[in-house]
Design goal:
- By secondary structure, this protein is α/β, with parallel strands linked by helices.
- The protein is built from eleven helices and nine strands.
- α2 links the parallel β2 and β3.
- The structure holds S-adenosyl-L-homocysteine (SAH).
- The site of S-adenosyl-L-homocysteine (SAH) has 24 residues, from β1 and β5.
Length: 259
């Protein structure tokens, strides 16, 4: 048997439609990096089109059977297949301090973890493009004021310009997932060092959205805000009313207040 049978616990939904695979590879701008790392190549439907690009393509795949399949069928990948868990792999081992793009039809069972991992290593990732379940892709790209705007949207958009590109139906996958998929592209901002304490920024955003129906005055009580600071009208708002820039300004105010 030549093909790999899908394993549900690894989030395996193999793409059957070659045109869509090509369209995903074409979302890469190829600006600012010489290497692309594909997460979860499976049987290489997307890899094939990445290998046609004028960049060096690497893949990282947790499933041994897929790794064997790729080694046998994609000789051009020779030496560039990492048989590893992306969430645990130290990218410095293969890439030193090199700038990389990340691409993929990602394993949906760990979507959020992939995004958080990318944020941790953002200094080396100028571009991130690929497919998630539609709802997650939309949430990442969402602007303030919408119900689905949340932690992922604010944290990603602090460092990246996020674009939702197109929707992909269930039936082009084997096995088909229960939901539609969405392709997005993130381009790192020119200046991706925030003008505030970044750790505090993450904590403020997460704390505010953990009680998203409350005003910031209530949800951020644990920060021991001074009475003077609490007067500020920003605390009348709920988290979904704040843009990334507003959250940065809020973090600066909280830092000045002394945490
Ligand atoms: N890109 C292929 C497969 C997508 S399915 C296609 O479009 O057909 C998602 C793939 O991610 C699977 O091959 C799965 O084995 C792999 N995967 C799941 N968790 C992973 C992890 N933590 N690190 C690397 N790959 C992972």
């Amino acid at each position: 048997m030549d093909r790999v049978k899908a394993k549900k616990h690894l989030g395996q939904h193999f793409l059957k439609d070659e045109n869509i695979a090509k369209d995903i590879a074409d979302t890469l701008t190829l600006q600012g990096y010489g290497t692309v790392l594909e997460i979860g190549p499976g049987m290489g439907v997307l890899t094939k089109y990445l290998l046609e690009k004028p960049v060096e393509t690497w893949v990282i795949e947790i499933d041994k059977e897929s790794v064997e399949y790729l080694s046998a069928h994609y000789l051009k990948l020779n030496g560039r297949i990492l048989s590893e868990d992306f969430l645990k792999y130290d990218l410095r081992k293969s890439f030193g301090e090199e700038q990389l793009a990340i691409a993929g039809n990602f394993p949906y069972n760990i979507s959020t973890q992939i995004v958080f991992r990318v944020l941790e290593v953002r200094h080396r990732i100028p571009e991130f493009a690929g497919m998630f379940q539609k709802e997650v892709a939309e949430r990442i790209c969402e602007k303030k004021g919408s119900k689905t705007y949340g932690i992922l949207s604010v944290l990603v958009q602090a460092f990246y310009d996020a674009e939702y590109l197109f929707t992909v139906p269930e039936h082009v996958f084997d096995p088909p997932p229960k939901v539609k998929s969405g392709v997005l592209r993130l381009r790192r901002k020119e200046n991706f060092n925030l003008p505030c304490d970044e750790k505090l920024f993450f904590t403020v955003v997460k704390t505010a959205f953990n009680q998203r129906r409350k005003t910031l005055r209530n949800s951020l009580k644990t920060f021991n805000l001074s009475d003077n600071l609490k007067e500020d009208s920003i605390f009348d708002l709920r988290p979904e009313q704040l843009s990334t820039e507003d959250f940065i300004a809020l973090t600066q105010k909280i830092a000045a207040n002394g945490v």
